[in-house]
Amino acid sequence: MLLHLHPANPQLRLIKQIAECLKSGGIIIYPTDTIYGLGCDIAQQKAIERICKIKNVDPQKAQLSFICKDLSHLSDYTKSIDTPLYRMLKNYLPGPYTFILPASKLVPRILKSKKDTIGLRIPDNIICHRILDTLGNPILSTSLPGEMVEHGALLFHENHVFFAPALPLEDVFDPTGAGDAFAGGFIGHIARTKDVSFDNMKTGIIVGSAMASFCVEKFGPQRLKEITKNEIDIRLAEFVQLVNFDIDLV
Fold it and tell me: According to DSSP H, which parts of the chain are helical?
């Protein structure tokens, strides 16, 4: 079923329908402040198992995040944290960040890994907030499997359109920050070359897409801190082959 919700003022009737779907063990694809997520009610074990089956992962090894509307659920699903960490959470959330925190005893056993941690997210998205308000508890969420994701980047200029598909990746570890990484790569390329022509913006789209593809391979900015110039050049070449487009890798 496909539901069309108003992005700024979601229809209450539809929000209730989504919440009932989750409470009955359903799975949804829903918007966050980064990309669309695959989610279920954290209390529905069979739904959790279905998501893990879709992702083809063991539940205890899956990188699943707790999507909350605010920090009120923090003490329910995480162990006691110190004041500096709590202040940092308040400073950065809501926002496109996933915080890895020690799991409490209330976290379903099926989700507990050997590290005994959970990923906590509070997206800055009104539809997501309304769903969580009506549901009354967190959504367990993960990124869409690669074969389900059809997102890429579109560039429009007068009568011209350029499309760069998302690069197929074996593993998407955490999509948090992918949009920021894309924007940084695109804007950084334009600023460095000082060229706003359509052809150079196409190159910028490829650079931004490449940086976003690195970002999702690990939590937060970790992967971006590790990459080398050689890795970037290889990834750019992969994108060039993917879109069959000649660009100057400057």
Answer: 12-23, 45-55, 74-77, 83-92, 126-135, 178-193, 198-215, 222-226, 229-243
For 116-149, how does the pLDDT look when each residue is reduced to its tens digit (9 = 90+)? 888 899 999 999 999 999 999 999 998 765 544 4
Positions of CATH 3.90.870.10 in the chain? 12-144
Give this prediction's pTM: 0.60
pLDDT above 90 as % of the chain: 34
Q: How do residues 85-119 score in pLDDT, each as one tens digit?
A: 999 999 999 998 899 899 888 887 767 665 688 88
The count of other CB atoms within 10 Å of the CB of residue 92 is 12
> What would the two tokens of residue 81 be?
């944290």
**Other beta carbons less than 10 A from residue 225's beta carbon:** 8
Assign 156 to helix, strand or coil: strand
C-alpha to C-alpha distances, 60 to 63, 67, 108, 109, 201, nearest whole angstrom? 8, 18, 10, 9, 42
pLDDT tens for 52-78 read 887 778 877 777 889 999 998 888 889
Q: Which helix (H) or strand (E) holds 140?
A: strand 139-143
Architecture of domain 12-144: Alpha-Beta Complex (3.90)
Helix axes 126-135, 12-23, angle to 10 degrees: 60
Q: Name which of 27, 5, 46 is nearest 144 in CA terms.
A: 27
Residue 141, classed as helix, strand or coil, is strand
Q: How many other C-beta atoms lie within 10 A of the C-beta of residue 219?
A: 18
